[in-house]
């Protein structure tokens, strides 16, 4: 199903939603379709209710804005198909080393421990920063977002 049709179906079942503003996106590495599928399933199943991104890597323009409280997102799988609609309920920016164990748990991946979260995200952010010719370090800001699934 295409993204626009999926959004319209969501709005028909939620008449209280009057906005047509949403972002459709996949979670995980751009070149790892299997990871995108896995993360989309975790969101769909209600296990993954949070995500973290590197603040510095957001393009501070209209094409890739920072997440905002109350905004809607359409989670896509690795084949760019809509899986569910989320609504952002918390956004905070903290240094990498200050991301909490609670946030790591709500990311819903692996053992859900802070130790594993730090290892996986360190490797991920390091690669992402290298692609932009920058160096990642533990004091750089991370955007921690918490959301809830509002439509499946």
From TrEMBL:
Domain ASCH per the UniProt entry, residue ranges: 25-151
InterPro entries (UniProt xref): ASCH_domain, DUF984, PUA-like_sf
SMART domains, per database record: ASCH (SM01022)
The protein, known as: ASCH domain-containing protein
Taxonomic source organism: Companilactobacillus suantsaicola
